[in-house]
Predict the 3D structure of the following.
Amino acid sequence: MRESGENYLELILDISREQDSVRSIDIARRMGVSRASVSKALSVLRDAGMVEPAYYGKVVLTEAGKKRAAEIRCRHELIHRYLVEVLGVPQEIAEADACRMEHVVSAEMLSCLRAALEQ
């Protein structure tokens, strides 16, 4: 899955934790993109089995989508924590960098980060 698809999954998960339902307009506003862009991205995610077909404008993650989104969120939080707690990177910079790094970091690297944070 491409980075943009992972960003959509992560955002859908985040919004679903904050409010009862997720609508495409919520995603568009948060990402600063058009509803047409969101519609196209959701179509790709639907084809990949990550989101349910839209009913009444609501966006719902499938079980596979929830799992993938949770994995992405976990990678993001682990990287962010390491950047802030170990390296002393300011929060805002750590947030932006973690968002980029979460898509390319290996499982081995994540294990090393986790081990370093547990010490």
User: Anything to note?
Assistant: The chain is about 70% helix and 5% strand.
